[in-house]
Every structure is written in structure tokens, then in C-alpha cells.
Amino acid sequence: QSVLTQPPSVSAAPGQKVTISCSGSSSNIGNDYVSWYQHIPGTAPKFLIYDNDKRPSGIPDRFSGSKSGTSATLGITGLQTGDEADYYCGTWDSRLSAEVFGTGTKVTV
Amino acid sequence: EVQLLESGGTLLQPGGSLRLSCAASGFIFSSYSMTWVRQAPGKGLEWVSSISAAGDDTFYADSVKGRFTISRDNSKNTLYLHMNSLRAEDTAVYYCAKVFYRFGQFDYWGQGTLVTVSS
Predict the structure, then answer these.
(1) What's residue A41's pLDDT?
(2) Min CA distance, A87 vs chain B (Å)?
(3) What is the predicted pLDDT for the residue at A78?
């Protein structure tokens, strides 16, 4: 079982906004940076956010990240049908000495 | 263009061994740490193992420690995952990924290779 908890699913209409939460603890999110990934089944996962709130080159500003304490949030504005995917948060857990991913959230547009 | 191409996935019986490969191109392979991540059917992403750029530091998830070995050949731009004592719960798509600039940040991923462990 993952130590990072995400809602199983979120949905919104095209053009609207969704937020995805990622809840952890002091040994993971509370102690390190958070990354976010988009995964369309059957394809390579895509790097969306690093260092809690930074976007890699090529990622539109419709995607945003934030962190507060032991929780992180991914926001997606101006939803498009192409945004339908599974989204995962990830960070390092110092107690487990392991990289950990969230449980994953399916976004439906 | 960065490309990561995994290979070696197959169907095999419990207790068997397998070596996965990940051929890298489009970046200076020897300058970056690399990682294996897997996804079991119907499940989420699970980190498996990571290796430093020079290959002198390796890290493993508890679920594979002692059974899997990560390695790399920088002269061949190739990452490996040696898997022994395979179990049904190791059944998954295995992805290799390039570390961005620190562990925990994976900026490029391959398409994955399927390993099925079943009798």
C-alpha cells in the first residue's frame, strides 16, 4: 500500500478546473519535494511538476502544484479531453528510504 | 530527443530469473541517475530501484531487495534490471526512467516492458 493518499477519481467539464490532493506525513511530503506525473495507460508517464510547484519545459501553465505541510495539490485549469489520465504524486520517504508514489487519481473530463 | 526503450519482458514461471534492458539515447547517459518503476495490473506506480550516474550507488524497494539488482553500462548507454526468484506479485509493466536532477524526479520514461510471472 502506498503511503501517499490521493482521491481515486475527480471529474469536471471541459474548460473547468480540478484539484488533486496528495496526503502524506512528516517522513515524506513534510520532509522533501513533491513531483507529479500524468499517465495515460499504455503510454509512458509524463513529468508534470517538480520541486512542489515548478513546471518542466513544455508543460503548459494550466498545470500547477503546491505544497503545505504534509500535503500537496495538483491543479489543472482549462480542462481538455486530452487531460483524461491517471495522475500520481511522488516524493522520497526518509523513514522507508524509498521513493513513494501516491495511490493515483483518475481524471475524467 | 530523449528516448528510453525497454526490452526483455516475457512470461515465466515463479522462481525464474530475467534481465530487463533499457537502451537510452538523446542525452549524456553517463551523467544521469536512472530508475526502474513498475505498475502491476490494475495498480498504481511502484518504485523498484535507482542507480547513480556512475553506478556506484544503488537503492531498492523492500519488496525486491535481495532478489533484484540494478546495473548500468555507460559505454553502451544501457540500464539493466536483473530479476531473480520471481514471484507472481512481480507481474507488472516495468518502466525505466531518467532522473531529472535529483532522485525522486523522473523526467523521461520509456513505454515499458511486460513481465508476467505465472505457472
Answers:
(1) 86
(2) 10
(3) 97
Q: Give me the residues paired with residue A18 across strands.
A: A76
Question: What are the chain A neighbours of B107 within 8 Å (beta carbons)?
Answer: 47, 50, 56
Output the nine-digit C-alpha cell for A48.
508534470
CA distance A93 to chain B (A): 10
Grid cell of B88 as nine digits: 507472481
Cβ separation B100–A91 shorter than 8 A: no
Measured CA to CA in angstroms, residue A20 lies from A17, A38, A80, B23 at distances of 10, 12, 16, 34
- Distance CA(A98)–CA(A24), nearest Å, equals 14
Cell of A1: 500500500
pLDDT at residue number B61: 95
CB-CB under 8 Å, A88 with B45: yes
